[in-house]
């Protein structure tokens, strides 16, 4: 993925040592502001804290009469515009996602999801909740909604759908962290070895995992991706990270820091947790099983679905390599398609080399309700009304 942008070798690239040191330190810190809000939720009658929290998101902290100090502190950070934020660059990131191919988006998100499942500390947190294993349809739609809401035009502005989604997911992370800290199962919470669950660095990893990697996947398959596009993705996802509680001193402020963070992500996943292989299976085979369940009576749809998932497996294996995919046990070898990604990448590079590389007009691929990607996923999985409800509130009672 990095060949066109950086010299790639077996060593972690050098970076300002202060940034590296801050990253290491941040692994032992959770999210003090949102962790305090979770404690406040548990102190108040059930539902009261959530009600005030939602009102503050929708109408501002000043709309509440005498709000708890925990909410005042949280929204003082959220309402503050950091000095490094450049809205023009955020818009460049949104435009990059809008012109990106669905293949690039799906591969970028898939690689980020696989790294999530492969990370010992993150997979412990994700697996502990059981949502991927028990309700992959709703969990997947929630992820699509989050991506669309943070990726639509002006979505990250205050009171925008992306701003609200990022803060809601931040609360979910804090709920999971509080549950894990209370756990008596040693392999769920090992502070000395893995730091805080859902810690600052785990959250910061989302910046290159789900931002930068989409631009890199696009580049692999021949689509024109400039340094400006990557800088836009960095700015967009750095602000998402800020809204989700990442410390100001570890959000990547430059392309070099963003690449370094991506390298560190992949280099420090650690050994598989007890949930890792279940999550791999859910991510790759769970979708396919859900699709088959809804279309078992339509032979042509089953065959079409099988081909679509064969494509996902073939392209994922091309991006990740056989060794890692064999270790994961969930990405199958698709022999009749193994030539396709290589040919696709070569032809696409040739076509784009001959084509005028003008900026495409904004089409609005992502919208607050999910846009075309949400329509596609719903058509594949056909969720029930309960499965299709996006509330970001599934973990509210984890710590009660």
From TrEMBL:
According to the entry, every stretch annotated as the ER-bound oxygenase mpaB/mpaB'/Rubber oxygenase catalytic domain falls at 105-330
User: Which GO MF term does the entry hold, naming one?
Assistant: oxidoreductase activity
Query: What transmembrane ranges does the database entry give?
Result: none
Any Pfam family the entry gives: MPAB_Lcp_cat
- Its recorded name reads ER-bound oxygenase mpaB/mpaB'/Rubber oxygenase catalytic domain-containing protein
- Which organism is this protein's natural source? Litorivivens lipolytica
